[in-house]
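In the lab's daily routine, each protein ends up as an entry in a very long ledger. A line of letters takes care of the sequence, but it says nothing directly about the fold. The three-dimensional part falls to structure tokens, numbers that each stand for a local backbone shape. The outcome of that step, for a single protein, is printed below.
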Amino acid sequence: MTRHARTALGLDYGTSSVRAVIVAVDTGEELAASTWAYEHGTDGVILDDRDPNLARQHPADYLKGFIESVRGALAAARSIKGFDPSTICGIGVDTTGSTPIPVDKGGQPLGLRPEFQNEPAAMAWLWKDHTSHAQAAEITELAARQGRPYLAKCGGVYSSEWYWSKALRCEQTAPAIARAIHGWVELCDYIPAALTGDTRPEFISRSICAAGHKAMYHESWGGLPAEDFLESLQPGFSRFRRTYGPRAVPSNNRAGALCETMARATGLAAGIPIAVGALDAHMGAVGSHVGPGTLVKIIGTSTCDCMVAPLARPLPDIPGVCGIVPESIIPGMYGIEAGQSAVGDIFNWFVREMTGGKSDEHASLTAAAQRLRPGESGLVALDWHNGNRTVLVDPLLTGLIVGQTLHTTRAELYRALIEATAFGALKIIERIESFGVEIERVVNCGGIAEKNPLVMQIYADVCNRPMYIARSGQTCAVGSAIFASVVGGAHPDVQTAQHAMAGVRETIYRPIAANAEVYRELFGIYTRLHDAFGVKNASGLDLDRLMKDLIAIRTRARSA
């Protein structure tokens, strides 16, 4: 036996690529990794210049991505003494979500059929597709009017990013394609099913993570929304409830075993256990060693904030969050999800549009922004460039920068945008804690958390609490590997696997008291703007003083 006698394979399907990581189950050491970029669209996303809300993906990229990324990881791992593919005890999968795929009766994605190969509505509807905002509002209004309980566990408002609103929009706007749809399958359910060789929607394992947070699934009302509710939205719409398949379950359950076809295509052994899939951010939380009292922020193009709480303790419904779902993150615990619709996307937008897209401008702008003191710019921004996910749940809100003068610099604008995302993060923390869920520590993961100390220090100062960084740079894939180790029998449960395979780094960003005091004032101004533009009939905001208050803060900062 070697020190790598047991390993697990974690697959992380992101917005532009898929990554395969081979992890030692006893230590969490990441032995090999390989990334394959999707071939279709722009950076893997199919766009439409006529509709900025549209974002789709071609399903052909998903299975090719599995084969190519696994082949690459295995090739890299073979250079390690003692490694053999037979040591892989299980496979885990996480994906973006809600990214539902329309499939036919045999489980084939419609986008793979020749007659639909150029139809965006037949593709996977990516998580950041907001074309369904009218349908989301329709679902919210009907549930409220009929007194249905469905919204209570998803923050009180249904989102355009989620499962039913996307399926409903397809029904209402693409009837030819809708007639060919037998079922809708979340990407995190489709990939494990495809690896087993059977993607028929009635028979695949459904993830409680995706079902609970995105499809209004809850055991207290019998699973999915009732057929008569779905029929009230659109005649015939309830067929997608009937083809949804068995009871949704957490990822410590097996979805099946790797089929011969996929084994031959990759070089893996047939029969490897495959865990039920889950959403990437939730797996990232597991890979960051989430537990009671820990908030994990997965910071990327957007953010997803995840927490867990014991099922034995009553947990109130929290307005504005993206769901409170039993066992969606860790079995035996509630999973709480919140998030921001854009973070890294905002920084990338600014560099792309304001600097001519020069690849090195992130570094130079960060360096210049780091030389500024809190409040020195006299700016406050709203981080709603892709809508607001939490706590307002409104995809039609947009970005805003207040306080600009003829002397405002690009570095000041860049820092103001970073600060805006930190203020949005604090709004989420305040909302969760106001409902009695204590946050003892914040762990951050993702490329921005690892590579940008300025962002992390600003987050620490704005939130006035330490910011920890997850040990792994691939927390989502590690989270998937943790569940793979459980279904593969290497660990008895998720918590045991976490202790062996996950952790945080020694680097901790601690708040600077003087900075935190300035940001407390600026957050008050952010809150006034937040409520003025996002809260109906908000009053007492003193907006006539807001710009002058910013100038006063700027004057103090520059004279310090």
User: Anything to note?
Assistant: The chain has a mean pLDDT of 95. Residues 202 and 244 are 6 Å apart (CA to CA).
